[in-house]
Specification:
Elements lengths: L2 H35 L10 H18 L6 H23 L11 H9 L2 H23 L12 H87 L4 H26 L5 E3 H16 L6 E7 L3 E3 H22 L7 E9 L3 E8 L6 H6 L3 H12 L3 E5 L4 E8 L4
Parallel strand pairs: 2-4
Antiparallel strand pairs: 1-3, 4-5, 5-7, 6-7
Helix pairs in contact: 1-2, 1-3, 1-6, 2-3, 3-4, 3-5, 4-5, 4-6, 5-6, 6-7, 7-8, 7-9, 8-9, 9-11
Length: 411
């Protein structure tokens, strides 16, 4: 639904509520006038006009009760008909002494509020002709009420009342018409603004889609280039003269693959700003296990990842850190026979921080010797933890446990 339709619907709802209030207040007001004018009630003094008025009052209450199932035009028409009938009936009975004469100005107000201008003009003319006919009847003796014998002064009063009625009705109609025109003008302006905003929104979406495709292509190219580099290193490792050189080249290859895997997930994702963490860790761990688990150990990888997505700024450092930790577990933690081999990785999201816990059930690390001879892996981990502003905790006795906490957004 366009904003134009929404505004028109809102205006219709407002008019419907206003008419419903008119129904209820009109019925209550008519009841009070009916009772007050005929108190104490005595059926012997009821005439045809009384039953006529009573019928319309009951009808107003009935329409209000079933208002939700009736159209706005129908309810408005019934109110106008009731006002007109009450006005004509009272004028015929009381002439210039009518107590509800001014109520007739509600007819042009309601007509121009709900119907088109031509119908408001027609209804106004009907009321005006009725007034002239009643005045003619009184001035020529066809109708006889409580007013004195027709004189020039009485005729002047009829004319004066008719002019006042016409002026008040026209003023009310003009005000309501101006209000309707203002609302329609606002609707037109809002509709134009909506069209402009919709066009700008479409252009913005198109630009975003183009940039997303471009970023995906960039990630794809970076991934391919890193794959070429890792492939060259892998080939070079096969030509290395000793195990140390082959292992060093393999470590470098896996570090590059850790970065490459991030770009691979990014170009495959609809959101190029974040990666699916569980999938990333699972695929990365499998690559490392396939590379270094040459003895065929049955290693159980247990993941408890409660962080669904991680930004690319966090993804690359976390990937390299986990690469180093898993590699160390395979090279040093599981170098002795044991009943089972377990690597457990947990990721927890809190209000402002992320926490990742890495644990293996290997033989642990000699901390004193570990501090004296820091290798490239340890240096790399510490550097990356500093980069993401992480604090960490380490336990190495009969296991290797590292937990580190870092803010969701770092400076």
């Amino acid at each position: 639904m366009s904003i134009n339709q929404e505004i028109v619907t809102s205006i219709e709802v407002l008019k419907t509520k206003l008419i419903d209030y008119f129904l209820l207040l009109g019925a209550v007001f008519a009841s009070l006038v009916f009772v007050a004018g005929r108190f104490p009630l005595d059926q012997a003094h009821f005439d045809v006009y009384n039953y006529f008025d009573l019928t319309f009052i009951v009808l107003l209450y009935a329409v209000f009760i079933f208002r939700n199932s009736l159209s706005l035009a129908f309810k408005t028409g019934l109110i106008i008909a009731t006002i007109y009938a009450a006005y004509v009936g009272d004028m015929v009975q009381n002439g210039l002494y009518s107590t509800i004469e001014l109520i007739v100005v509600m007819i042009p107000f309601l007509a121009i509020l709900v119907y088109k201008l031509k119908w408001a003009v027609i209804l106004f003319c009907v009321v005006l002709v009725s007034y002239i006919a009643i005045a003619y009847g009184y001035l020529n003796g066809y109708l006889v009420g409580d007013e004195p014998h027709p004189t020039q002064l009485i005729a002047y009063k009829w004319v004066n009342n008719g002019i006042i009625f016409s002026i008040v009705s026209i003023i009310i109609a003009l005000l309501v018409q101006k209000l309707n025109d203002s609302l329609l003008r606002i609707i037109g302006q809002q509709d134009e603004n909506y069209k402009v905003l919709k066009h700008q929104d479409q252009e913005l979406k198109q630009n975003i889609e183009e940039k997303k495709v471009l970023l995906q292509e960039i990630h794809h190219r970076v991934k391919n280039n890193l794959a070429v580099v890792s492939g060259l290193l892998d080939l070079q490792s096969n030509l290395a003269p000793d195990d140390f050189s082959r292992t060093t080249l393999k470590l470098s290859t896996n570090r590059i693959l850790s970065i490459s895997k991030v770009h691979e997930l990014l170009y495959q994702s609809d959101d190029v700003s974040r990666i699916h963490l569980e999938r990333y860790i699972k695929e990365l761990a499998q690559i490392i296990l396939d590379s270094f688990n040459k003895t065929g150990k049955d290693i159980s990888l247990q993941l408890d990842i409660n962080i669904h997505y991680l930004s690319v700024n966090h993804g690359v450092p976390i990937g390299i850190i986990l690469n180093e930790l898993i590699t160390n577990s395979l090279k040093h933690g599981f170098n002795s026979p044991q009943e089972d081999y377990v690597i457990r990785i947990s990721a927890i999201e809190e209000a402002n921080d992320y926490e990742i816990v890495y644990l293996d059930n290997g033989s642990g690390v000699d901390t004193s010797n570990h501090k004296k001879q820091p290798g490239l892996g340890k240096t790399l981990i510490e550097s990356l933890l500093t980069q993401i502003e992480a604090s960490f905790h380490l336990e190495t006795e009969n296991k290797y446990l590292m937990s580190f906490r870092f803010p969701k957004v770092y400076s």
